[in-house]
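Anyone up for a design puzzle?
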């Protein structure tokens, strides 16, 4: 359960990520600065051997909070593998086309409005891309077969169209917190392992049967009143967070039985349902193997109560027969 505990902590400690979009839309005007060679030299680190092994060069460059609206000067640093240009005013990333060794790119809190015309097709080894707090509404123009983690928190997505396995064959972690999604439909990524969709306006669980390798599904602070849509096709789901939704009907817990063989941790707090004094026992009726509910471990006493309730139920059935 250590992995699941870690996931639970990470997904609940979201305050910093939740503010990314707000920071990007602040009213204060920041003076735009031009990128100079001196600024680049100050941001370089992580000395590493070059491909031939006879020379050394810096492969990490951090240019955060520089007031930049142009990064053309970066184009000659083609050995860079890790680049952070967060908290600037960038709209055009085309100078990165020559950085063909890039593995890791953060462009959080800028003003990028589209993937079309951006250089991602020229970055064949890119594994991590973070574009939180920009102005994106779709992923048209983004094809990154090596990408393993994609963060699109705090943009303007209303639908998840375009997330197909042929364009994102290796994508394992997708973050779309703080957008305007009202459904989970549109993702066809059979290799996806973690999906973070907190702080949207999701009302329906749809299309989840395609996510056969998903282990973590995070749906905190949405508008769900039902768990209908969970699928037996989610054969590896271990952690489900639906905290802060509108789930009130105990009957909707029946959908949990579809993932009962794999689910280890469930977060249901801040739903109307939890006001019932015996809701934990109700949940365990459908999830007898659950290890953790709302951050608290399932106790032996709770398992005994569930067992007794099952015994009483079957005794009543036999008597009626």
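Challenge accepted. My sequence:
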């Amino acid at each position: 359960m250590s992995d699941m505990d870690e996931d639970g902590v990470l997904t609940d400690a979201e305050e910093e990520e939740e503010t990314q979009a707000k920071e990007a839309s602040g009213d204060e005007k920041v003076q735009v600065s031009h990128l100079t060679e001196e600024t680049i030299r100050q941001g370089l680190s992580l000395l590493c051997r070059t491909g031939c092994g006879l020379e050394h060069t810096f492969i990490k460059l951090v240019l955060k909070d520089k007031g930049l609206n142009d990064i053309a000067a970066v184009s000659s640093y083609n050995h860079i593998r890790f680049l952070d240009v967060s908290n600037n005013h960038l709209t055009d990333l085309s100078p990165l086309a020559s950085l063909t060794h890039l593995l890791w790119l953060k462009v959080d809190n800028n003003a990028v409005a589209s993937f079309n015309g951006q250089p991602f097709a020229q970055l064949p080894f890119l594994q991590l891309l973070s574009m939180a707090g920009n102005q994106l509404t779709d992923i048209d123009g983004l094809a990154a077969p090596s990408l393993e983690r994609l963060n699109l928190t705090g943009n303007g997505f209303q639908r998840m169209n375009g997330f197909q396995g042929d364009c994102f064959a290796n994508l394992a972690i997708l973050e779309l917190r703080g957008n305007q999604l009202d459904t989970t439909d549109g993702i066809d990524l059979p290799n996806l392992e973690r999906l973070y969709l907190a702080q949207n306006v999701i009302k329906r669980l749809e299309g989840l049967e395609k996510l056969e390798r998903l282990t973590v599904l995070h749906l905190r602070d949405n508008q769900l009143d039902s768990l209908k849509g969970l699928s037996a096709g989610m054969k590896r789901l271990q952690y489900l967070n639906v905290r802060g939704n509108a789930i009130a009907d105990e009957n909707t817990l029946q959908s949990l039985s579809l993932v009962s063989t794999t689910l280890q941790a469930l977060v249901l707090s801040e739903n109307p349902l939890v006001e019932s004094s015996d809701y934990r026992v109700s949940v365990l009726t459908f999830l007898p193997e659950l290890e953790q509910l709302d951050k608290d471990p399932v106790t032996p006493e709770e398992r005994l109560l569930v067992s007794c309730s099952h015994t009483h139920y079957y005794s009543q059935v036999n008597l009626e027969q």
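A detail worth pointing out: The two ends are 42 Å apart (CA to CA).
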